[in-house]
Batch of 4 targets.
Target 1
Amino acid sequence: MKANASKHKAMSHDRLAKEDARLTKEIEAFFDEADATDAEEDRRYGKGGEHQDLPAELKRREDRRAKIREVRAALQRETAKGRAAELERMADELRSKAADPSTTPAKQATFMTVAAQHDQKAADLDDDDPPPPSADGDLPRNTPPTAPDGAPKPAAQRNFTDPDSRILVRDGAYNAQIAVDEGAQIIVAAALSNQAPDAEYFEPMLRRVVDNCDAVPERTIADSGYFSAANVATAEAMGTEPFIAVGGHQRNGLPEKSRTSAPPESSSRRAMRALLDSPRGHAAYARRKATVEPVFGQIRACRGIRAMSFRGLLKNRCEWLLICATHNLLKLWRAATRPSLTTAAAA
């Protein structure tokens, strides 16, 4: 779903720095010119005179530079927080390794020392209080690329209009997720975030389905963007049979055949491909084009909802849940008002 922001309002950290330098140079040139003009006027007319407002071009550049510095500082804070979180995860992994009974005392000491170093670096990068727990804290969230010291990489971007949006395909956008039941095209789980890859949404979306329906679906069908060995294992551990496309898939829902030049496949991918190539797999995956894809079409084409109306991740998550809720209400209304076969025959 497109964000309420244009991709042209996004700028990389490298470009932010260059724009800051360019505007600073132009502003200094304006002041040099103003000083020269003042000196010439003082020479010709004497000192004094009323205060004059800044020239419009100078004010525009100063306002632009201030905004660029604000966005650049926000991007630096965001990447620093992301790097701090990464260091904290690394420290926790090292402490877990140190607690393993099979780890030698020497390695335990090394692991604990490095973990403490990671903790200190994380604290130096992010000394703010941790955010309160969120109902959507399990969803993936995009973090701009970060250097080891927590500084943004040159390609790290931030949008001036909606800082939470990301350029996913063509424009500033959000990744809107839904899970749909096969029988009535009712949305049974929905979520929205700014992370592009779909694979990281599979587990949190499946858990939402189970929580909302108080039952585990008999089977779960997803396109190739959701495939990973971990997602297959997660689905099986939760008690649902996964049918996840591997690689590209044809328009009729069947997976494409492997090319002879394709790299060797993992055992998990081979097993899933074999399942999808079976008659049972064909029948299951073919249902996808009549389950979830029509719902996106009904939202986007029939209802004309192609972009988010608000700015910011929280507001757009709320809007997406409202969009999905109204989709379900429309389905229920149409089902309740649809004439039955008996009534139609009598008429």
Note: The beta strands are 10-12, 157-159, 166-167, 172-173, 175-180, 187-193, 219-222, 241-244.
Target 2
Amino acid sequence: MELTAALESLIAQEGVPLFGVADNAGFQHALPDWHPRHLVPMAKRALVFGRPFVGPKLVVEDKMNLSNESYWKANEAVLGEISRLRSRIMDLLDSFGFAACNFGGFGSDFGPAFSYRLAQYEAGLGVYGRFGVCINPAFGCYYTVGVLLTDAVIPVTDRTQLEGFQPCSRCSLCADACPPKAIDPSKEPEIGYDRDKCIRYIRALKKKHGIEAKACSRCFSVCPWGYDKVLGKGNDSAAQV
């Protein structure tokens, strides 16, 4: 079985609802020194695979801006599934003689990072949302992904399927709800999110309430393409891991 067919079979067998392939020759909006060609010069493709989050609904306490611990505990299983899928895909690529590696994405620090949001966009899984995420037509912003860079040449995903999909065009709820005002609704979603301002606020909350504090995710909790879109309207596929 050729690699592409074997990979498609694995994705189907695992029931992975979100999967896309990006050409590493793209990524024009990558941060300096964090383009795939800088990280792994031999890599040709970025594989992006994801699963939706599960309930309970993410809510944020009004005064402290801390999100409910039960939400994060419930989704530990989803994050574990992403790690397991990553290992299975890496093993498959290795069996065909190809290499693969992954890099961490968004983190609560000020350093640059490989952009998972950009990888999702390049792989045709979503469009830019206002608050530093990608929004998928089926799962909204209520999902998480893993990313692998590989030297295998696999057919890329057709991004034209997302043409006309503009979930943030008439919405600024996240900007209105953002405590540090890190979202500028007057700008296009690609450039309206101030990551540094967001992280400074999150770090201040963690310092005040403890390093394990889950903060603040208010933008995520008010997004119309979040819980209510995915779980609150009976999407059974989003309720399973």
Note: Residues 76-95 form the longest helix (20 residues).
Target 3
Amino acid sequence: MQLATQLVDADPSAARALLEELERDVQQALNETGRLAQRIYPPLLEAGGLTAALRAAASGIGIPVSVEVEAATGCPPEVLRTVYLCCLEALEQADAEARAVVTVRKEARAIAFEVMEKGGRSVAARGRSDALDSLRDRVEALGGWLTVSSAPRGGTRLSGSLPLPR
């Protein structure tokens, strides 16, 4: 505190500039913490369901996205959270020139999901295929599977399935 007082006394404009820089840094840290919290536990997923959470995420991506969710109610929270995170990661990895379709459907004993990116360069061409490995681990830990494939002329398809309890 004494150092801050000395700085203000010695050079008020430098102190003001330092405070503005600190304010920007704190705001950036708060924004990053908020984004991290959204990824760890998206509140809209619980409050509004998978459809609302995916549509909200898609609206902030910056590319055209269509979201089609068929009956995702009654699924365990960890399954819905994993589907959400996989779809979100695929959308965030999408090329800026692409458009995407997110599809989620409940099957007899599983919930299947797909993000089809059309247009743009493939994930492999963008050098980001490793970003999805941790999601594959998460899906497999829940007994499911996740695949990522790229079309030669651009576009990427992420698809997966997670088992549902009987």
Note: The longest strand covers residues 110-118.
Target 4
Amino acid sequence: MATKSAHQRIYFALKVHQHRLSLGFSFAELAERTQLSISYLNEIEKGKKFPKPDKIEQLARVFNTSIELLLSETLPKNLEPIEELLKSNFLNELPLDIFGFDLMRLVELIADAPTRVGAFIATLVDLSRGYAGNEAHFYFAALRSYLEINYNFFEDIETAALKLASEYKIEIQSLHNSSILEKILKEKFNYKIIEDGLSSYPDLNILRAVTNPRTRTLLLNKNLTTAQRAFQFGKELGFCELQLKERAYTSSLLRVKNFDEVLNHFKAGYFSAALLMPQKEFIADIKAFFLQKLWNNGDSILGLLQKYNATPEMFFQRMTNILPQFLNLEQVFFLRFLHTHGSNQYEINKELHLSRKHHPQSTASSEHYCRRWLAIKSLENLEQNKSGGYFIIAAQLSAYNNTNDIYLCITIARRDNETRSSSVTIGILIEPDTVSKINFLDDPEISSREVSTTCERCAISDCLERQSAPTFIIKKEKRRALREALNQLMDS
């Protein structure tokens, strides 16, 4: 019999499992009746083996059913959630392998409790459908989880970047005009680079670059900053050095085909950051920054951005690679906010939480994020031009309402264009050993504020920045009063 697909093996495994249980047979009893070994039957139910026609006939006879029904891709009513799952593309979308989870293990879980597990996975299917069409797509959520469980540090990519830098004797200062990276792309990988390659295509002007992997042609947006230009070159080198085949043509992912594409674009971007901000030197600079006695209005951060010719997002993302691994600062989060000028809406469109889920995080609803957050306050100040410019670096000690958690939050906000601004924030949980690693925590220039997640969930009563009533708190209080009244009634 021809090799069967994973889906066909799953269907058959569930059918055999269901028939065996409905008849009350143990593996030993079924083995005796079918003359098949216990181990072979076990592998069938795990989806690892698909029997030959004569063995299928034996199973059908014992189960008192037809071969056609046993082979059909129709499951009993109690397995409808599983059938919907298998007919969807969800199993193909699940990047099980990167989490060390074998597809056949999923079959075992489904077989052990098909209705409950099936309903749970069907819920995931519905959620993933809801994500499709925005940046919180299921693939990106899966990627974020993958980064978080790996502390956003990947030794193999670090080693590959270090090897290329050593091979071409790349130094920090030589990266400022990115000519060394351009030279490597041309000489080692036969790239053709078109400096103003998108002007003839007005609809593509929102992109930083477009690549044709087949002809190895890289078309650049003429408006790229030197930092953006260097990052694009580094990213192309990442695709080549890491031999990443599955990729999109555009610098940012517009329409995602599969998870490998998302993962490969992350790996190429990580390679670029590791190349532009070499591990050893970056660690030394961050340690020196934290050992300063004073915050100094973020002048040191500005100096490091200039040294590495990095965008704020590149710089903070690189910090998330380094802090847990080399400074033992594991409780870290990263957030990126977008804000359209003139609106009252602030959108989190990128986040990362290391060690655990931290309080400042995105919500799926239309709630109002806390305006006491430094990330939002900086964007408000930028729009009102209180800073007198287009760039703000600020720090805050943020104490989360009704918790013992206090974070050092460092935010960089900037005007992206005439209509939009963005801010990136890195937050570090203040723990007993954090104080010995970050010397400027007591600097009076760093403001301290009590903050919450959203106005709707905030119990701070005297908040002047409140944008909405604390609806969740009100509902919670009503439920508490209801429970107390019921207890009084039952005790009377």
Note: The chain has three domains: 6-131, 149-276, 281-453.
